[in-house]
């Protein structure tokens, strides 16, 4: 179903969902503004509505070459360029946006034997949170815990940075970092923090058992109260004079070391 939309309730809702976390949480959805993210949402059949920029006919072959054929049951609204650009959260938006169903996971949904868990403690930058979710997906993590002190995982910048991974990786947002660690330890998951203060070199640590990797804020690292709950800490060896890595980059280094060790162990 294709409709030409102007200033109407559909556009008003789309704008609200782009701007307001409370509305996204209440309605159980996010707005996906990247082609890659929309393709993934269409693949898993979670698109509620598709909005395309005027001049980008969703039946056109060039559009279908990117998105693929759109399910005829999904409403498609064509917005004039000014309206589309005014709603989009980016300066140079791509040609489509989608309202996609999304819910925070519960801890009971997580398969802890499947892969490591990544727990965020005060990671405030949306780009870093989205990149960590994308990294978790690529490294085979079983879940990401991103509680109230972290950037909102439903925010448009997080959704863009995650590039579709938000629809594949369970993300738990209801627990504080401390509560998440307590709950994980109760399930025999070892909680290991990334630290600049010391601990064991990450390549010497045994990552073979069920484990949660705890990543602290960009500016201050892991909160002291959270650090007191950890089972161990690891550090990344860096060249002399270097102080720290970006938190998303550090998470990638650690997550893929976990994957390397586990893959190597499976091969044996």
By oligomeric state, this entry counts as single chain
Query: What is the first-to-last residue Cα distance?
Result: 54 Å
| SSE order | EHHEHEHEHEEHEHEHEEEHEH
Biggest sheet character: 7 strands, parallel
Individual helix count: 10
**Nearest-angstrom radius of gyration?**
20 Å
Overall strand count? 12
Major sheet strand order: 8-7-6-11-9-12-10
What is the arithmetic mean of pLDDT?
A: 88
Q: How much of the residues is beta strand, in percent?
A: 15-25%
Structural class: alpha/beta
User: What form results from the Cα inertia axes?
Assistant: elongated
Low-confidence stretches are none
Topology:
Layout: E1 2-5, H1 9-19, H2 21-27, E2 29-32, H3 35-43, E3 47-53, H4 61-67, E4 76-79, H5 81-87, E5 96-101, E6 117-121, H6 126-139, E7 143-146, H7 156-162, E8 171-172, H8 177-186, E9 190-194, E10 200-201, E11 211-216, H9 224-227, E12 232-235, H10 247-267
Parallel strand pairs: 1-4, 3-4, 6-7, 6-11, 7-8, 9-11, 9-12, 10-12
Antiparallel strand pairs: 2-5, 3-5
């Amino acid at each position: 179903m294709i409709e030409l939309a102007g200033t109407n309730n559909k556009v008003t809702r789309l704008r609200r969902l782009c701007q307001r976390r409370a509305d996204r949480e209440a309605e159980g959805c996010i707005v996906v503004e990247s082609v890659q993210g929309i393709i993934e949402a269409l693949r898993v059949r979670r698109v509620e509505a598709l909005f395309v920029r005027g001049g980008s006919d969703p039946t056109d072959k060039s559009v279908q070459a990117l998105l693929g054929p759109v399910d005829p049951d999904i409403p498609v609204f064509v917005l004039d360029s000014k309206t589309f650009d005014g709603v989009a959260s980016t300066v140079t938006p791509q040609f489509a946006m989608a309202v996609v169903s999304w819910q925070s996971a519960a801890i009971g949904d997580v398969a802890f034997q499947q892969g490591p868990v990544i727990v965020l403690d005060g990671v405030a930058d949306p780009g870093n949170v989205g990149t960590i979710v994308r990294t978790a997906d690529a490294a085979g993590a079983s879940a990401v815990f991103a509680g109230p002190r972290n950037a909102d995982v439903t925010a448009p910048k997080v959704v863009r940075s995650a590039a579709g991974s938000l629809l594949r990786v369970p993300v738990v947002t209801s627990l504080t970092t401390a509560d998440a660690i307590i709950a994980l330890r109760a399930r025999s998951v070892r909680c290991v923090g990334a630290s600049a203060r010391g601990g064991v070199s990450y390549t010497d640590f045994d990552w073979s058992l069920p484990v949660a990797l705890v990543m602290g804020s960009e500016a201050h690292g892991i909160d002291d109260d959270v650090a007191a709950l950890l089972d161990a800490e690891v550090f990344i060896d860096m060249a002399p004079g270097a102080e720290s890595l970006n938190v998303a980059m550090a998470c990638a280094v650690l997550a893929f070391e976990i994957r390397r060790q586990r893959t190597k162990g499976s091969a044996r």
